[in-house]
Amino acid sequence: AQKVTQAQTEISVVEKEDVTLDCVYETRDTTYYLFWYKQPPSGELVFLIRRNSFDEQNEISGRYSWNFQKSTSSFNFTITASQVVDSAVYFCALSENDNFNKFYFGSGTKLNVKP
Amino acid sequence: DAGVIQSPRHEVTEMGQEVTLRCKPISGHNSLFWYRQTMMRGLELLIYFNNNVPIDDSGMPEDRFSAKMPNASFSTLKIQPSEPRDSAVYFCASTVNRGITDTQYFGPGTRLTVL
Hints:
The complex is a heterodimer. Chain A is built from no helices and twelve strands. By secondary structure, chain A is mainly beta. In chain A, the strands form three sheets. In chain A, strands 2, 5, 6, 10, 11 and 12 form a six-stranded mixed beta sheet that branches. In chain A, strand 5 and strand 6 form a beta hairpin. Chain A is globular, with a radius of gyration of 14 Å. The model of chain A has no long low-confidence stretch (mean pLDDT 93). Chain B is mostly beta strands. Helix content of chain B is 0%, strand content 54%. In chain B, strands 2, 4, 5, 6, 9, 10 and 11 form a seven-stranded mixed beta sheet that branches. Chain B is globular. The mean pLDDT of chain B is 94. The interface between A and B is medium-sized, with 23 and 25 residues.
């Protein structure tokens, strides 16, 4: 079974629209960490955020916000007022405390922001 | 600060040739990871090192793949002989291993094409 599911393969929006990228994870550990990475067309993987399982507070960083809900095992990512530069593939990842070096990556969501 | 450095950025080779990919982790990081990214399989962890010692190489596809880390600032991933199905983007990542999950920082990747 997939430990991290990103059901949205590709999303297209028009600039200035808000968009939410979904991430659902599966783990039996009580201590775990969740991540989001961005992969722009240039190909590198850029770290965006790291959250641990004990911190359910939502996080906001500029136009980016993250909604962590343990009750639904979700860690969704919202971009407000999207811009063309947000076009990229976004990956959600899980790391469990009993094997903290292993990251389980989702399959990624490709976001196309059109002008 | 310099991030993870990988070379070459692009490599085109013919089937049967030996390929060596190189990685310099972020200074002070003591864990290093090699990943492979393909459309079909997404991001796969191949091997990781802790304090220059290989810890888990269960993701290495077969004996044609080998990885070394002779010192804290250099690692290589070698494919010999290469095959067309090895064509992929290979990423190196590094982190500080403090006994808990920490962020993995990725290099720009090496795009390998085996003809």
